[in-house]
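Reopening this ticket.

The earlier resolution said the output was attached, but the attachment link was broken on my side. Pasting everything inline this time so it's all in one place.
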Amino acid sequence: MSLQLPVQTVSRLCLIYRVLLGMDRNEQLSSSKLGKLVNIPAHTIRKDLSVAGKLKSSNAGYKAGELLDFIKGLFNFDAPLRVCVAGIGLLGSSFIRNPVQEGGQFIIVAGFDTNINKIEVMKSEVPLFPAYEMADKIREMRIDLGIIAVPAQAAEITKERMKEGGIKGILNFSPAILGDKDIAVRNVHFAEELRFLTAMIPDLEKGV
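Inline output:
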């Protein structure tokens, strides 16, 4: 993507893209209708699309297929990306068992863990390797993105191994908050999301 967009704009366009994937390509969408589907104000959608490129809405709005293709081309979503998983516990192994995501856009091609016994015992169509081989295998297999599903104390060294191998982006599910000026990192924390929901409901009754 040559155009540098605000993070929130990218996030909203990705959400719109997810909704469009399940729609009839010929369906006509006004900014208002699209806004209701993704819970985003219509004027924000128009602004995001205007900032992102030359796509303009007519009085009839947008055709779903054309809008889908526009966002796909903007972010190069057509190109399949190779993904690896570090940490094959309950969460990591769930990714390994479902290696093809989003219709083939993301393909999990390798898994890593520090527990050699687990690697040897686990049945998997995805090749599994010791964590110390991570950088070499990422280079060798030309892996684009990494998923971190390791304990907090192992998160930083895992990120560094992925970075050394040439990973371009990381989805971090560990409790640690990771950041890096050279690669894209997105932190996802289950309890934090539940905490956010709790904070948004001030009159929620606490206790079991």
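Reporter confirms the inline version is readable. The CA atoms of residues 80 and 105 lie 4 Å apart. The first helix runs from residue 7 to 21.
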